[in-house]
Amino acid sequence: MDQKKWSLVKANYGGTEDLADGYYRLREIEDGYQLAYLAAGPCGEKVPHPEVTLRQVDDHVEPIRLRDLEETPILNLTQADSAKIEELTELLLERFIMRKNLEF
After folding, report:
1. Does 85 have pLDDT greater than 90?
2. Within the chain, where are the H helices?
């Protein structure tokens, strides 16, 4: 995972933000972070599309789990699927950077 992108997102993110295409959320958890794009559900609920769990390892983070409740069937990836998790995490980071009009 690109640590520069992660640092940029972390520095420009606070809680849950409503941007042009939906909600983005970053929150701290016990061993790291959860980063998510939340789609609006039919009853107003926020559905992870996707949600990535990131583990803090020394001075960097690494994605270890991803779930997407909008996919059919539900996408639930673990460390055994690390390449796919990395790819989808990069896409989520890039999407947030684009929506916030951030620059490296």
Report:
1. yes
2. 3-11, 82-99
Question: Mean pLDDT across the stretch 14-26?
Answer: 83
Pair of tokens at residue 68:
């997407």
Largest CA distance in the chain: 41
Between 35 and 102, the more confident residue is 35
| Cβ-based neighbour number of residue 17 at 10 Å | 15
> For 66-94, what is the mean pLDDT?
93
Angle 3-18-4 from CA coordinates, rounded to 5°: 10
65-102 CB burial, b ≥16 within 10 A, e <16: bbbbbeeeeebebeeeeeeebbebbeebbeebbeebee
pLDDT of residue 14: 74
